[in-house]
Write a structure and sequence with these properties.
Layout (H helix, E strand, L loop, with lengths): L2 H27 L15 E10 L4 H4 L6 E11 L5 E4 L11 E4 L4 H36 L1
Length: about 140
């Protein structure tokens, strides 16, 4: 794998972790949402990653010298299909005839831990890109 391909792999990892973090923040923001435009409570969403081939933006300049590498991408966004959590709140405007309100199945503590993991994954890709950038710079310095 060339250094330029390693940059593309790191960039794909950063994009995937950003998408995951956006979904986790959306889950946290809607943890108490009982009414959505689609009807019913908010449904938790999760990102599913897959291995994918990433090309280098420099491949057009260097031709076939830069081979493709395996990176990561968001394959799909999965919406939670479990029944919502029911809480007895008879005075709530969204309560049913029995006084129960449907709340999303979002665990804020779990999503915060996942969000920290996404942030650390993003930071690891930033560090990898920084290391590759330093290697490229040192290679250029050797050619001077």
């Amino acid at each position: 794998m060339s250094l330029f391909s390693a940059l593309s792999v790191g960039a794909s990892g950063m994009a995937a972790q950003r998408a995951r973090a956006e979904l986790l923040v959306e889950n946290l923001a809607n943890a108490e949402t009982t009414r959505t435009p689609e009807g019913g409570p908010y449904r938790r969403k999760d990102a599913v990653f897959e291995s994918t081939t990433v090309g280098s933006p420099f491949s057009s300049v260097f031709g076939q010298e830069i081979e493709a590498a395996n990176g990561v991408a968001v394959a799909s966004v999965v919406t939670d299909t479990r029944d919502p959590e029911k809480r007895y709140m008879p005075g709530h405007p969204d309560a049913d005839a029995n006084g129960y309100v449907a709340f999303p199945r979002v665990n804020p503590a779990e999503d915060m831990v996942d969000l920290m993991g996404a942030a650390r994954g993003y930071e690891a890709n930033v560090a990898a890109i920084g290391a590759v950038k330093d290697m490229i710079q040192r290679s250029i310095d050797l050619l001077k």
